[in-house]
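User: quick one, fold this
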Amino acid sequence: MLPGPRVSLVWTRKLRPPKCIPSRKTDDGPRCLEENLTGNQLTDQVPDRRQVSDSARRLLPWLVAVAFFMESLDTTILNTAVPTVAAALHVPPLSMKAVLSSYTLSLAVFIPISGWMADRFGTRRVFASAIGLFTFGSLLCGLSSNIHVLVACRVLQGCGGAMMVPVGRLTIVRTFAKSELIRAMSFVAIPGLVGPMLGPIAGGLIVAYAHWRVIFFLNLPIGLTGLYMVYRHLPDYREKCNPLDFVGLVLFGSGIALLSYVLEVFGEHTLSAREIGGLTALSALLLAGYGFHAPRIEFPLLALDLFRLRTFRAAVSGSFFTRLGIGGIPFILPLLYQVGLGFSPVQSGLMMMPQAIASMSLKITMPRIIARFGYRGVLVSNTLILGALILFFATIGTRTPIWLIILQAFCFGFFSSLQYTAMNTLVYADVTEERASGASSVASTAQQMSISFGVAIAGLAIAVFVPDRFHSSPAEMIHGIHRAFFVLGAVTMLSTAVFSELRNTDGEATSQHRVLQHIT
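Assistant:
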């Protein structure tokens, strides 16, 4: 008879935690069969949150908050620097839309697999890899010598950013008890509001008083410090993971990447109509292939059957089409201010801040508005108001008073934040707790896709109305941007049709409690 395996009685920090073998599910969550350190028998135990040290519990929200800050800051800090970076890379400002949209597109592709990677490889390893990848991508962005390299490095940045925030939130959920969770998650959400507010002015100050490459080098000390803190203090959780839908990842990722590329080059006139038509058809074929593939496997990359729920369908689809209209506004307003009106980067950044200030300072009123008028009333009327405000941006010219521009930006910031709050919370109105994670993945992916496509559509709309994007005068740029506002305003108003399928009673429970913390 062969001797039984020996089990070491030594436990050090460098050893991995006991291997968790799935056993059964209970009301308290999944249980596991854990190796007993005093022998080779198995005991049925629930992983204990108290095993996490007090220092790790204190530092964990800060680690995730800093990661969230880096990710959210990077979505806006480059907007006001677009004309300066374009001049340094010897490309028209409109060509910079690829630099902005490639980052959010990368987020859309890799967010769905972040949870699987955390369960498969452990939260500490994945979170550290995400920070490292984001930091390395930032370094390469700062060293880029042409726009094509910069776009590729922004994709690398997005790969890291796609895993940082979801895995960080997952670690918090597994570390804190439900009674402590709201406080921890609320703390983590603050940098997500502060980052977009500081981004425009920070980008303007950097390009005005330093070099544009500092925008990306700014992430290096933060990222390296984060890596050190993660390896010292972040808990390492692993769970039984379902098989990765690799076929779905290839079909979906390549499909939306190809579609985004078509939108980028459509206004550049670098490809013939036949080539663009062929690429568009191939993209549609890939996405249709994913639509055919997903319902036929047990664990798809994105659970499309959630769209059978009316509230989920209206929230995600309506959010997608609405963001196609408003997602490009942060890209074209700095172009209007700097290229058209002649403002400096710092002035342009200051002109963008009222949007973020309104969004952050008035959020306390938004749950009350939704509770008073209901989701259908808010989303239908608010979408029309947003479309009208975008059309009103087309009145901004060289003689428009500064106070009026600031007032328009403030109003747009409030109503767009109200729209995001309503759309993001309605997603969970009829979704069960078991499917909340899948619903979050679908909603987050659709959100990042729409932002990426929104920037591309905004740039395309301007390119159509600007006769010569290489040598256009300020007056011609203002004219083209005004026409683009008309297009984006119309697209936003048309998305009202999606929300019209809602009933007056939809989301009643959600509008009063439960998911109001999931706001952006």
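User: anything notable?
Assistant: The domain at 305-520 is CATH 1.20.1250.20 (Growth Hormone; Chain: A;).
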